[in-house]
Design brief:
The chain is mostly helical and about 120 residues long. Helix content is about 65%, strand content about 0%. It has one domain.
Length: about 120
């Protein structure tokens, strides 16, 4: 992962962890969704984001999120380098193969620093 993309991904993950620790689970999910968009082409970052979504689901007692994140963790580990649905936010209530619009500021980072942009 390019250092600038890593910095943005790590910032989103740190914000998610801070909100998780404060019991602000919706805010944690918002940052995890952004981290997911940034890291979904990188197996470990992708799986890490789903792991945290699972943790939030467990804290909330959200059965749909819990059940949905377990296969997504495995999929992230095995398929991230092959294909990902661009922009998908990674939540269990979103179809796992559905491409989604990417927020402009994240699109700028991905255009500059994603694996596909490196020649």
């Amino acid at each position: 992962m390019h250092p600038e993309l890593r910095r943005a991904y790590d910032a989103e993950m740190m914000a998610a962890a801070m909100h998780y620790d404060s019991g602000k689970f919706q805010e944690a999910f918002s940052h995890l969704e952004r981290a997911h968009i940034l890291g979904q082409s990188f197996s470990i970052a992708h799986a890490r984001t789903h792991w945290w979504m699972l943790k939030v689901g467990l804290k909330k007692g959200d059965i749909v999120e819990i059940a949905g994140q377990i296969p997504r963790i495995l999929g992230a580990l095995f398929f991230s380098r092959i294909w990902v649905p661009i922009g998908n936010t990674g939540r269990a209530r979103v179809p796992p193969f559905k491409p989604m619009p990417i927020p402009h500021e994240l699109q700028v980072l991905l255009d500059r620093y994603s694996r596909k942009s490196i020649k």
